[in-house]
Amino acid sequence: MSTDKRSIEWYNQNSERYTKHVRDPNDSIFHSQYEKPAMYNALPKLNGMAVLSLGCGSGEDCLYLFKCGAKKVIGIDISSEMIKIAKSSYPECDFKEMDMEKLDFEDSSFDFVYSSLAIHYLEDWTKVFSEVYRVLKPNSYFLFSCNHPVSSAMELVKDNKDFSIRELSRTKYRKINKVDIVGNYMDRKSSFGQGNMDVTTWHKSFGEISMEAASAGFFIANIIEPLPLPSMKELSPTSYQSMMKIPDFLILKLLKP
Ligand SMILES: C[S@@+](CC[C@H](N)C(=O)[O-])C[C@H]1O[C@@H](n2cnc3c(N)ncnc32)[C@H](O)[C@@H]1O
């Protein structure tokens, strides 16, 4: 199944609000204090390169990649409204409305493909991986981030105005030979609604992610489980405490040999 229509609708209807959020580093601390520093740290040298960004949103990463020396940066996104904002904000880059499952580019046309927190909007990643593999030149990388499977495997067991509890746990009752499992790591599952966002994202195990990547021909060059920046401790002590123990995001760097 491709990206849920409700997710596309959400980004179209909330494009300005979402853009304001990602452009304010004190508001989007999961980006500014956690995911972006780790993604930027894992970039290869981009001087003179042709770069593609999948699910580029309002285009901030595209501008960053351009400033790192890329010769050409193209951002694609399935939301027409996000693309409108990106186009009007960053004329240095090129933006197109496109589904990452169906890339309208020639074979071997990019030196690097990047995607930040977008691939988990899809259930099956095999099409994306084979499309990215097709448009990449040999000996080039696909760097992407997604929800960490340990985190997305958890189940919301309580949610009220005072607190919420997410669990991935196993309780064994030895005397009666019974086990209670909360959460599910092994099976794919979708979840609708993330904070105040009405979007659908997918959980899958790390084994499944690596199998899908390998079946397209990729080698895993690096697996990154980021830690928050030390400055996160002051900005949000609870998120900092949580991220130091339980990863929210996973970053993979894949090589097309
Ligand atoms: C969480 S936002 C991330 C935006 C941007 N990468 C950033 O880090 O600010 C996810 C983006 O993925 C886009 N998206 C979801 N499914 C997509 C698909 N199948 N093809 C292209 N873009 C998609 C959404 O429209 C949205 O802009």
What report would you give on this structure?
It is a single chain. The chain is α/β, with parallel strands linked by helices and 257 residues long. It has one domain (5-148, 187-256): 3-Layer(aba) Sandwich (Rossmann fold), CATH 3.40.50. Helices cover 33% and strands 31% of the residues. It is built from ten helices and 13 strands. It has helices at 5-13, 15-23, 29-41, 60-67, 80-89, 126-135, 149-152, 206-216, 232-235, 237-243, and strands at residues 50-54, 72-77, 94-97, 110-116, 136-147, 155-159, 164-167, 169-173, 178-182, 189-194, 197-203, 219-224, 249-256. The strands form four sheets. Strands 3-2-1-4-5-13-12 form a seven-stranded mixed sheet, sandwiched between helices. The chain has a two-stranded antiparallel sheet with strand order 6-7. β6 and β7 (164-167) form a beta hairpin. α6 runs parallel beside α8. It is globular and about 65 Å long. The protein starts with a helix and ends with a strand. The relative contact order is 0.16. The structure holds S-adenosylmethionine. The site of S-adenosylmethionine has 23 residues, from α4 and β2.
Task: Round the Cα radius of gyration to an integer and report it.
Answer: 19 Å
Counted by DSSP, the helix tally is 10
How widely separated are the two ends?
28 Å
Low-confidence stretches: none
Overall mean pLDDT stands at 97
**In oligomeric terms, what are we looking at?**
single chain
Beta-strand portion reads 25-35%
Provide a concise account of the structure shown.
The chain has one domain: Vaccinia Virus protein VP39 (Rossmann fold).
